[in-house]
Write a structure and sequence with these properties.
single chain, 150 residues, alpha+beta, 4-stranded mixed beta sheet, 5 helices, 4 strands, 19% strand
């Protein structure tokens, strides 16, 4: 299990150093901003949705490694998905990071999200991992107000 945890940490560090879809999206037709006052993470999610499908997604922002990596992984997972599928992924991610640490995690079902399963052992970091996902959900629902983890 220690080898798996180390691998997950390396994936998070890699997504932090080399985030996917980390840029502005000029043709976005939806966007939302999120803020985690606990540690200062900020993220802006850009979506280009056409015919209920996320054609393109990007993010910008600054924050801790977990926050940035979570946004990076999230964008790779939701691109090409329907709005309904993206909302389902949000709920799956939320359930995973807030579940009891004694509950087993279905790694295969979670796909790339599984790298964040260890976050649930550190309650203060859950909001870091969740920020981009909550901001995505707000953008999907076309909410204008800033998302806060508080």
């Amino acid at each position: 299990m220690d080898e798996l945890r180390e691998l997950y940490q390396q994936v998070i560090l890699d997504h932090n150093r080399n985030p996917k879809n980390f840029h502005e999206l000029p043709h976005a037709n939806r966007h939302s901003e999120g803020y985690n006052p606990l540690c200062g993470d900020r993220v802006k999610i850009y979506l280009d949705i056409e015919d209920d499908v996320i054609r393109d997604v990007a993010f910008q922002g600054a924050g801790c490694a977990i926050s940035k990596a979570s946004a990076s992984v999230m964008t790779t997972l939701v691109k090409g998905k329907t709005v309904k599928e993206a909302v389902a992924l949000f709920h799956k991610f939320q359930k995973m990071i807030t579940s009891d640490t004694r509950e087993p995690v279905e790694m295969e079902e979670l796909d790339k999200m599984a790298v964040f399963s260890g976050v649930r052992e550190f309650p203060s970091r859950i909001k870091c991992a969740a920020l981009a996902w909550h901001t995505l959900k707000a953008a999907l629902q076309n909410q204008e107000e800033q998302v806060s983890t508080e």
